[in-house]
Amino acid sequence: MEQISFGEEARIEATNEPHLACVLLLDTSGSMTGCIDNLNKAVSDFKMQVCKNEESKNRVDVAVVEFNSEVNVVQDFVPISELQPINLMAGGYTAMGKGINTAIDLVKERNRFYNNLGTPCFKPWIFMITDGMPEGEAPSEIETARIRIKEEEAKGQHGKLKFFAVAVDNANRDVLSSLTSRVIELRTANFDGIFNWLSDSMTVISVSSPDNENKLNPLPQDARKYDPDRDVSDW
Question: Exposure of 84 by Cβ count < 10 A (0-12 exposed, 13-18 middle, 19+ buried)?
Answer without folding.
Answer: exposed
